[in-house]
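thread from #wetlab-drylab

HS: before we spend reagent money on co-crystallization trials with cytidine-5'-triphosphate, can we at least see a predicted complex? here's what I'd submit
DV: go for it
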Amino acid sequence: MTILAGKRVVLGVCGSIAAFKAAQLCSTLVQAGAEVDVILTRAAREFVTPLTFQSLTRRAVYGDLYGDVAANPSLSSAHVDVGMHADVLVVCPATATTIARLAHGLADDMLACTALVSRAPLVIAPAMNVGMWEHLATQANVATLLARGATQVGPTFGRLAEGISGMGRLAPLEDVVGATRAALGRGGPLAGRRVVVTAGGTHEPIDPVRFVGNRSSGKMGHALAEAARDAGAMVVLVTGPVSLARPWGIEVVPVETARQMADATLGACEGADLLVMAAAVADYRPAVESDRKLKRSGDALAITLAPNPDILATVSARFGDRLVKVGFAAETGEVAAEATRKLHAKGAHLICANDVSEVGSGFGTDTNRVTMFGRDGSVEALPMLPKPEVATLIIARAGALVAARGGATA
Ligand code: CTP
């Protein structure tokens, strides 16, 4: 599970047409194992009903400070209890009124009371008309919340409910989830650490329309970057071409070729505490890249391949053991022997090996079965798990190696 598992999330929903999206967010959080307490403002109830969220969370839904208590006296201290026990408070969508309430410390509705009582991190996902968003009052209120440590996610530019385009659309829900995870992970075991993760395969151009590539989807690398972020790290993700959304709160460096990945990774490793090389780097590239499209002649075509740099070995040669280095080994047999060989040949501290010939383990799948081979001779076999869970376990192990060396950079 990710950092959301077992966490108490308060989801505050305000009166915006984007309120219907909060139901999907609520469902995602519940499926990730969070205990979600939903608070609907009075205006939110005009757009969505408590029953929607009650059905998703199987928990009471809060809202009317006085009416709820009249109907159910056991809720008489809900206005303080919910906030006191929260691990994170997420307001999505956050309207101009609620942002103003929270910025000014009002306590005139259930959501405002909860926010005032709570000391948990606050995440706001604004959604409103562009004029309201750009008004100096709203901007000042948001700045106040940010100065107090709140996390702002969105809004984005796009079509608004009024039919015009502008700034004010709710951020994509995966960003709201990412921001919530990052807020929960603040101060985690990798706080103050710099982590570099590589992901995806590389594309080695043959001509302007063709390339040599591989089947890597980038899912494992992206999950690792998110797990490192959730452990509190500052993360740089160097990624080959993938069709995955940019993870929230992570610096993404897109690259195409192995040589570009080598340059970006070596640059990012300067001052880093941990490198996780999950990328499937092409070992060879066409020796000559044609600047014109190759034409079909009907004859056999031979393309000479030239070797690419070994990025992990190059990092080891340049930085030695100044950072912890984790590599991967996707094998089709001889897993243990190959992992141990690569551990030493590339100067890694840990090699995460998997047998890609096993169904469900490897390229393009959502699951992976990994065995971690340590430089110290340790061997830890993980069961077949979803990639986000594998990532959490690998980052925990790598984080322990980083911690054992002491000296956080911040
Ligand atoms: N790797 C790298 N640079 C390369 C090739 C691989 O940094 N040019 C890294 C991978 O990101 C991975 C580890 O080295 O973390 C092992 O990758 P793998 O492809 O299994 O190893 P290779 O050295 O390419 O060996 P082979 O293909 O012969 O199995």
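DV: The pocket of cytidine-5'-triphosphate is lined by residues 258, 277, 279, 281, 283, 308, 310-312, 327-330, 342, 346 (CB under 6 Å).
HS: ok that's useful, forwarding to the group
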